[in-house]
Amino acid sequence: MTQPIDLHSEFLRADLLFTMGQPDAAARILQPIVDTEPRNEAALELLARAYYGSAQLGPAEAALARLVDLAPSNGWARRALARTLERQSQGGEAAVHHRVADALGAA
Fold first, then answer.
1. Which of 20, 47, 58, 104 lies at a CB distance of 3.0 to 4.6 Å from 75, suitable for a disulfide?
2. How far is 93 from 14, CA to CA, in rounded Å?
3. Could you tell me the residue ranges of all domains in the chain?
4. What is the reported pTM?
């Protein structure tokens, strides 16, 4: 019989790994958390940051798009999505998110 995952402890472990400069390890821990709790904005944001930090731009874009869908007024998510799109040579799509981020006062 398997033990249920303690999502909070796993989130904290992933956060620590991300902070220690191991975004790929953090992403591996975070993906099952986000799969279990798909509306958890904190886990989704950290997952997006981990994917971006490990240059996994496709998964980062998908996580950020989900975060923007959940929280359309999240200026940070809009800006991060725009930068991710830019890194994938999708400047036209990025511009839309930059404009929204600017309107929201995001840095």
1. 104
2. 30
3. 7-104
4. 0.91
